Amino acid sequence: MKIAVVGGTGKEGRGMALRWAKAGHQVYIGSREAERASAKAVELRATGAGAIEGGDNAWAVRQAELVVLSVPYAAHAQTVESLKADLASRIIIDITVPLVPPNVRTVHLPKGQAAALEARAILGPSAKVVAALQHVSSSHLGDPDHAIDCDVLACGDDDAAVEVALGVIRDLGVRAFHAGPLANAVALESLTPVLLHLTKKYKGQGVGIRLTGV
Ligand SMILES: NC(=O)c1ccc[n+]([C@@H]2O[C@H](COP(=O)([O-])OP(=O)(O)OC[C@H]3O[C@@H](n4cnc5c(N)ncnc54)[C@H](OP(=O)(O)O)[C@@H]3O)[C@@H](O)[C@H]2O)c1
Fold it and tell me: Is 177 exposed, middle or buried, given 0-12, 13-18 or 19+ CB atoms closer than 10 A?
């Protein structure tokens, strides 16, 4: 697929871009600064990753069929608002976690209950927003030769969009499951601060989740 990663110059975006390009997808890295995204694309292509290009966020979204929102929560609403016209027709995977630094190990429920719900509220009820990937640390994604010992939950109200998202997420090298309606993003996003607490408390490495019984 043609996949845009808005904020793809960041820690999480880097790993997704590398893994998707290696899996045969065409990846468009987006940034507020086109040059920063182009430089990142050059850097990642140099690893032999495949088809990765970079440009500004709006350009990246316009190239793609599926868009991943990968920006800090503080920039989330503004970013969605600025890309609204082009996001409306595309499948969106929102990986944003509403963290409030420095207390990133404490659950923070935003005004709209979840970042993904806030994105949908900005874009309108027909927007194909899928919330996912909040539990996969960049420390696992970044090295494409490293097996990710972690499952992924994805939720959304458009079943067809969730299925497309699940397929693309599985191409990162993880198991991925449909976790219900977009309202469940409240639970998914709220689990991340708990995982960050566990990572610190037990000196773990990007603590994630594994489902049993499925
Ligand atoms: N890191 C993880 O392990 C992890 C795991 C699961 C979920 N997440 C979630 O994934 C999202 C991205 O995480 P990350 O660690 O990749 O974040 P990051 O590296 O801090 O930021 C990602 C990108 O967002 C853009 N950005 C930063 N500040 C911005 C602003 N004020 N306005 C607009 N764009 C801004 C930057 O791109 P440009 O400067 O190039 O525009 C930056 O490279 C976050 O919501 C995070 O909660 C992260």
Answer: middle
Superfamily of domain 2-201: NAD(P)-binding Rossmann-like Domain (3.40.50.720)
For a mutational test of ligand 1's pocket, the pick from 18, 36, 61, 71, i.e. the residue with the most ligand atoms closer than 8 A to its C-beta, is 71
The protein residue whose alpha carbon is closest to atom 47 in ligand 1 is 97
Q: How far is the CA of 4 from the centre of ligand 1 (A)?
A: 14
Q: Where are the domains of the chain?
A: 2-201
pLDDT in tens, the chain (214 residues): 999 999 999 999 999 999 999 999 999 999 999 999 999 999 999 988 889 999 999 999 999 999 999 999 999 999 999 999 999 899 999 999 999 999 999 999 999 999 999 999 999 999 999 999 999 999 999 888 889 999 999 999 999 999 999 999 999 999 999 999 999 999 999 999 999 999 999 999 999 999 999 9
CA distance 80 to 88: 10
Residue closest via CA to ligand 1's atom 36 equals: 7
> Which residue ranges have their beta carbon within 6 Å of ligand 1?
7, 9-13, 31-33, 36, 70-75, 79, 95-97, 99, 134, 136-138
User: What's the predicted TM-score (pTM) here?
Assistant: 0.97
Which residue's alpha carbon is nearest to atom 26 within ligand 1? Answer: 71
31: nearest Cα among 68, 3, 58, 67? 58
